[in-house]
Write a structure and sequence with these properties.
This protein is mainly α and about 450 residues long. Helix content is about 70%, strand content about 0%. It has a domain of about 300 residues: Amino acid/polyamine transporter I. The protein contains 17 helices and no strands. The longest helix is centred in the N-terminal third of the chain and has 31 residues.
Length: about 450
C-alpha cells in the first residue's frame, strides 16, 4: 500500500460507537440541572431536550450529504476546501490542532483522574497528572496499533458506558414520584421565555456526532454507513437524554433540581438500594463515560491534520501512515504528546471555551459549503438530504444559535482567540500555499477506494 494512504476497515457499528461515544460525555452529569434551571418547569425541561435533539438532525443530514460526496478524512476541512474557501479551511485545522483537540484530550484525562481521586486520594496532586498522562498513553497505544482494533474497543466502551444510564432510567421509572411533574414556578412569566433557554442549555450535550466525518476515508461502504450512523446516533442520544431527564425529574423534587450542579448524582440518591452508594456509582459511571469520549477523540482527531498534510497545508510528516499498523502514526504521536504536555497546565477549560466560538463559526461555514459544493462537477453524493435548502438553513440557524450563546458568554475572549488564530495562521497558510499550492491545486486529492 502507499505510505500515505489509509484503508477502509471500519463498519457501521464502529461509526455508531464513535458518534455516540463522542457525544455522550461528562456534560450530561451537570447539564440536566442546567436545562431545568433555564427551562423553569418540568414539562418545558423535557421538551427542551427533545427539541435540542431535533435541531441536530438537519445538521447531521447536511454532513451526511457532504461526507458521501467526499468520503475522505478531514471533515470540515475537506468541505471548506472543496467550496473554494481554502484559507478558511486551513484556519479550521490550525485552530483545531493548537487550541481545541489536544486540550480536549488533556481535559478529559484530568476529569477521569478527578473521579478516580474520590477512591484513591493519592492521585489528587502531581501524581494525578502523571496518571492522566498514563491513561492517555494506554488509550493511544490501542488506536496507534490498529484502526480496526481501535474501532472494536470503541464499540465495547460505548456499549459499557450506556449501561449505567439504562440502570438509572429503568430504576427511575420504577421509583419516580409523579407529583414532581406538577411543579410550577412562582412567577408564571418564566414559562413564556424559558423554552429558548432550555433548548440552548442542551446544545452542548448534543455535540459530537460529526466525529465520524473526520474518518470518512476509513469506513467501508461510506455512502450507506455514514448517513445511517449519523442519523441513528442523533436518535439514540435524543432518546437517552430525554428518558434520563424524565427520570431525574421524576426522582428529584424540581425545586432541588434547579439548584443542583450534579443532578444525576443527587437523583440517584432517591433510588432505594443506590442511595448509600450514589456518589460511588456516579463516579464509576463518569469514569467509564469520559473514558469512552477520550478514546473516541484520540481516534478521530489526528485524521484532520493527516488530511491537511496530504493536501500540502500542514507539516508533511503528519501525512505519514505506519507501514505495519496502517494508522496516521506521526499525527497521533504529536497530538498525544502535545496533550500530555497540556495535562500539567491549568485553565484548559477556559482556553477551550474561548476558541470554541471560532469552531462554531466555521461549522456554520461548513453547512453553507453545501451550496458551493453542489455546483461542482465532482459532487455526486450517495445520500441526498430531503428539502436540501430548508434543511441547510435549519442547520445553519441551529449552529448560529449556539455560536451566539457562546459569544454572549465570552465576547472579548472569543474575539481575542479569533485574532490569535488569524494572526498566527494566515502567515503559515500563505507560506505553505506558496511552497506547495501549485502542486496540490494541479490535481484533486485521490479518494481511497
Amino acid at each position: 500500500m502507499s505510505n500515505n494512504a489509509l484503508t477502509r476497515k471500519l463498519g457501521f457499528w464502529a461509526a455508531l460507537a464513535i458518534a455516540v461515544g463522542t457525544t455522550v460525555g461528562s456534560g450530561i452529569f451537570v447539564s440536566t440541572g442546567d436545562v431545568a434551571r433555564a427551562a423553569g418547569t418540568p414539562t418545558i425541561s423535557i421538551l427542551a431536550w427533545i427539541i435540542g435533539g431535533l435541531i441536530a438532525i438537519p445538521q447531521v443530514m447536511v454532513l451526511a450529504e457532504l461526507a458521501t460526496a467526499y468520503p475522505q478524512n478531514g471533515s470540515g476541512y475537506v468541505y471548506l476546501n472543496k467550496a473554494g474557501w481554502r484559507p478558511l479551511a486551513f484556519l479550521y485545522g490550525w485552530a483545531t490542532f493548537w487550541a481545541l483537540d489536544p486540550p480536549s484530550i488533556a481535559i478529559m484525562a484530568l476529569a477521569i483522574v478527578s473521579y478516580l481521586a474520590t477512591f484513591f486520594p493519592f492521585f489528587s496532586g502531581f501524581e494525578g497528572k502523571l496518571l492522566g498522562v498514563a491513561i492517555i498513553l494506554i488509550i493511544t497505544s490501542i488506536h496507534y496499533r490498529s484502526v480496526k482494533e481501535g474501532g472494536l474497543f470503541q464499540v465495547i466502551i460505548t456499549a459499557v458506558k450506556i449501561i449505567p444510564f439504562l440502570i438509572v432510567i429503568i430504576l427511575g421509572f420504577i421509583y419516580m414520584n409523579p407529583s414532581n411533574f406538577s411543579y410550577t414556578p412562582a412567577d408564571s412569566t418564566i414559562v413564556k421565555t424559558s423554552l429558548i433557554g432550555g433548548v440552548s442549555a442542551t446544545t452542548w450535550a448534543y455535540t459530537g456526532m460529526a466525529a465520524i466525518c473526520f474518518m470518512a476515508g476509513e469506513f467501508k461502504n461510506p455512502g450507506r454507513v455514514l448517513p445511517k450512523a449519523l442519523i441513528s446516533s442523533v436518535l439514540i442520544v435524543l432518546g437517552l437524554y430525554t428518558l434520563l431527564a424524565v427520570c431525574v425529574i421524576g426522582l428529584m423534587p424540581f425545586d432541588k433540581l434547579i439548584e443542583s450542579n450534579a443532578a444525576v448524582s443527587e437523583a440517584v440518591k432517591y433510588i432505594p438500594g443506590l442511595s448509600d452508594i450514589a456518589s460511588s456509582f456516579v463516579a464509576v459511571t463518569a469514569i467509564i463515560v469520559i473514558l469512552g469520549s477520550l478514546s473516541s477523540c484520540i481516534m478521530f482527531q489526528p485524521r484532520l491534520e493527516y488530511a491537511m498534510a496530504k493536501d500540502g497545508l500542514f507539516f508533511k510528516r503528519f501525512a505519514k501512515v505506519h507501514p505495519k499498523y496502517e494508522t496516521p502514526s506521526f499525527s497521533i504521536i504529536v497530538q498525544v504528546t502535545y496533550a500530555c504536555f497540556l495535562v500539567f497546565f491549568s485553565n484548559l477549560t477556559a482556553l477551550l471555551g474561548y476558541f470554541t466560538l471560532i469552531q462554531l463559526l466555521i461549522n456554520i461555514m461548513d453547512f453553507a459549503a453545501v451550496y458551493k459544493c453542489r455546483k461542482r462537477d465532482d459532487y455526486n453524493p450517495i445520500y441526498r438530504m430531503p428539502m436540501w435548502k430548508v434543511t441547510t438553513i435549519l442547520a445553519i440557524l441551529g449552529a448560529a444559535w449556539l455560536a451566539w450563546g457562546t459569544f454572549t458568554w465570552a465576547p472579548l475572549q472569543g474575539m481575542i482567540a479569533a485574532l490569535i488564530v488569524i494572526a498566527t495562521g494566515l502567515p503559515v497558510y500563505y507560506y505553505w500555499e506558496k511552497k506547495y499550492g501549485s502542486k496540490n491545486n494541479s490535481s484533486e486529492v485521490t479518494l481511497n477506494s
